[in-house]
Amino acid sequence: MISYATIGTNDLDRARAFYDAALAPLGGRRTLTYERSQYYGGPGRGAMLGIVLPFDREAATGGNGAMVALAAGSAAAVDQAYAAALAAGASCEGPPGQRMANFYGAYFRDPDGNKLCVVYMGE
After folding, report:
1. Domains in the chain: boundaries
2. What is the pTM of this model?
3. Are the C-beta atoms of 26 and 75 separated by less than 8 Å?
């Protein structure tokens, strides 16, 4: 149902380097590249995550209560993506762990303050 979601950045080159590293453990790779945005997708033609310089040319800010959740294929992939994100400059919003039955997740903020979750929803 979701085609793509976008989050803002104030430094697209820094964001590209961050998301190249943070999404690699999830199979994420660059898909569409434009002057003011970079999109990432996984295997196949599923939903994409776009990192964009705001259209109105105002500063990008992280939304309070807004979050993007990224699917992982295993709890180990959650751990790897979280570690890669922190190594690339993210701040912790909740370390990896079992949150409820069939929900293993980790939370972090990217260098622009956008909140993301990496989650494995097991069998």
Report:
1. 4-54+61-120
2. 0.89
3. no
